[in-house]
User: What shape does this take?
Amino acid sequence: MRYWLMKSEPSEYSIDDLARDGHVAWFGVRNYQARNFMRDQMRVGDGVLFYHSSCAEPGIAGLAVVSKPAYPDESQFETGKYHDPKATRENPRWFNVEVSFGKKTRLMSIAELRGYPQLAKLRILAKGNRLSITPVDPDEWKFILARIGT
Assistant: This one.
């Protein structure tokens, strides 16, 4: 079992949206490293820290679980923001996994995350990190869960 932090802008899709919907295809990822995490490493049952980004108070807002393995992201074939003219159904370039709602938690802000020396290596805290999906070490996962009261 692995653990992940997945970022979403709450104005696009929030933990409350996931609670309402129950599950969602994590579509629209257009970074090769993040795509590779989903395609090559994520497995059903992996734990997810649902992180609100690009908002007034960024931070971990809830928990989810990977509920469907990687499959081609349909948005690459559709006209719109995520369309990729180089992608074909025979050779898709972009993939997504499905995540299911776990629980909403208290917000663990980026400022709070930065305050714990035990989380110094958490990838979301690395200078210049822009990835929307990052792995979380099992010890970091346990530490965070203990702090958010799960």
